[in-house]
Amino acid sequence: MTACNPTAACALAALVLAGCGGAVHVPDRNISLTVLSSKPNEVSGGDARIAVSAAGDLPGGLTFRLNGQRIDPPMVAAGTRMEGVVSGLAEGRNTLEASYTDHGGREVSARLVLVNYPVTGPMFTGPQQQPFVCRTQESGLGQPLVDNHEGIGHPVFDAAAIDAPGRHVVGYSRYCAINTQVHYFYHTGEGFKPFDPATGYTTPPADLKTIVLNGASVPFVVRVEAGTINRFVYTIAMLAPSAARADAAPRFDTAAWNRKLVYWLRGGVGIGHQQGTAIWFSGGMRGAERQIISRILAQGYAVASSSGNEAGVHYNMRLAEETAAMTKERFIEAVGQPLFTVGVGGSGGAVQQYLFAQNRPGLLDAGIPVQSYPDMVTQTIPVADCPLLEQYFSEEVALDPASPWKTWSRRSLIEGSNASDTVVNPITDKPGSSECINGWQGAVPTVVNPVYKDPRYDLVVQNYGYPPDVFAKVKWTHWNDLANIYGTDSDGFAPNSLDNVGVQYGLGALAAGQIGKDEFLRINACVGSWKVPSQFVMWDMAADPFDARNMQRSATCRDPGGLPAPRRAGDLPAMRAAYTSGHVFTGQRLDIPMIDLRPYLEPVLNMHNARQSFSVRARLLDTNRTAAKNQVIWFTTSEADQPAHAIDALGVLDRYLSTGSAPAQFADTCFDASGAVIAAGASVWDGILNQRPKGACSAAFPVYASPRMVAGESIKGDVFKCKLKPVAAALRDGTYPEAARFSARDKEWLERIFPQGVCDYRFGDQGRPAHW
């Protein structure tokens, strides 16, 4: 936000501008109007919670006008301030005026300019995707509302049942909107069930659990508001331990609210074109999620969520940011302004927390990123390397039954990430696998292959009556999902950032003497690369587990005189767009406290590897060492009670925000399976990001690398395209160990493998914008 220096011109104009913090001071009486629910230039849905403040007592006879017309918003006064919700804003620019008559008979006023957008969106994310599947019916919230008869969007039928015979289309829904609904649920001790407030308070269900609230035992009942904002399904949940009065039924009962908000965010990998479903309905709440949310609610927190903040629905972080801001705005209008908002969520939900903190200060006040990544677009770098390497290893083993790569654990030398001789491989159903397989097999087609459509979309066509070719023009890639950001070519393909030109796979293993020069040269000659998007074909997982048909390969690559498999150069504008759009976590800003909570999953080869928490910290240390103090890392064993640790983290952050200072527990920590602290403090992770001896937590929880780290990149993992240096320079400057002793033939082969040169990671990323 731009800093503002109030001037006489500002005061005389009596206008509130977003850059001036939302306040206006009338020259002879310090009265101001502010908007509490959003930025003044980002109001949505036609209403806004506003506050009137005065330096002394509020003046009497205060009147309000909206766009020149007298209005009477319900306002609640307390001392020198009053607040309430103003409704009836027109789309676009609006002027709200609060005025009174001073002792001299003059009318004195303050004005606030509000820019209002439709609740259907968008605000700043550009044209909305079509086709776009509405899923309110799957959530048990009914069909979306008809908003057009031009065939745009989701078909709406005259019968509620999806399989109703003889049903007819009555219209279409491009916005997937529903009328706001209120539902009640009660907790059984295991999960939530629907609750009838008309009878449930007087005749409670036999399995209803009670909780202690303010010293009294009360029924664990939750009121959930559900609706649609920005085309996604939102929910707001709060305790409702007693029956609401008939006249207050549409409103939230805030008696049990602790005046704090948790914003719940979800993970996954999605490619858009669908609405997602609501977590409270149709069994949408998952196991650990159910346990954590129930414990949060039992403490009096409100919980807000949106299907637009689930990375398994889409991975447009600007759209996620916009949706979260609009959903929080709705919460403040319906319930009130929270003392603070804490983000909680895992995987892609963790990514959202880091990127919101970077891109939109003030949306969250703290966060608990669980099983985090710094972002997803830089994660595509090692994810794309994995199948290339596994295809190479599988071919080596097929050619030579005595190949050293038959020993699965040895693959870690090249891949960096963990590999095991005992963990069951999902492809072979036998012992022996790697994180590249158990964690990431299938991820590349999901993110990169423009013709790989999730089979569930075929069910959508069948069940909802879409035209058979409705998805024919959709390109199913992460980059096409963000076409507003990356752009597309004349055939509709978005450029992507995948690049492995100059990457010397296994260089670290060569330097350590773990592989010989012949193996090093063969890996790099044969590893190949991914084709450009327009050349992709459908993935056949059973016949082609690593999607080799979509790789650039060479049949003669193993011969020193043969043709090396080509490498692929990524699109530089796409790389720069990833940075400038805020989809890369750079480490430049983290102004809120974060407890990065991670169950240690390396032994089971899970995709949520331990390295990611330290990738975040490395980026922070590299660009903003002060901000790095706002992130602490907690590790637990995989067997530990993760919901309990998440609630503990929430308690620590609550104390931090409530007191304004960090509690002692806001520190790097690791726990054993019983939940006991192994070690805590500034040195527990030594040896990972510095050259000191291993700390207690580093020793207890070994952190693995990535293919690019073995090739020379840092743990930050944020280099799309490396700087290059000639092979001749690399042969002179000590890039290769003396023990390698490349022959003339080897050097010639190396030159043909890397005709453009090899990576020099000392000088960063060719694809990064200059201002980064």
**End-to-end C-alpha gap:** 19 Å
* Number of strand elements: 31
Mean pLDDT across the residues is 92
Q: Specify Rg, calculated over alpha carbons.
A: 29 Å
Spatial arrangement of strands, main beta sheet = 13-12-16-17-19-18-20-21-26-27-28-29
The helix/strand class is alpha+beta
Helix-residue proportion: 10-25%
Could you name the ranges where pLDDT drops below 50 across 5 or more consecutive residues?
1-28
3D shape: globular
Which band does the percent of strand residues land in? 15-25%
Count of helical regions: 22
The major pleated sheet works out as: 12 strands, mixed
Structure description:
- The chain is globular and about 95 Å long.
- The protein has 22 helices and 31 strands.
- The chain has 772 residues and is an alpha+beta fold.
- Helix 3 (287-298) runs parallel beside helix 18 and helix 14 (517-526) packs parallel to helix 22 (744-753).
- A hairpin with a 4-residue loop joins strand 12 and strand 13 (192-194).
- The two termini are 19 Å apart.
- Among the domains are: 8-117, Macroglobulin (MG2) domain (Immunoglobulin-like); 379-583 and 722-772, no CATH class.
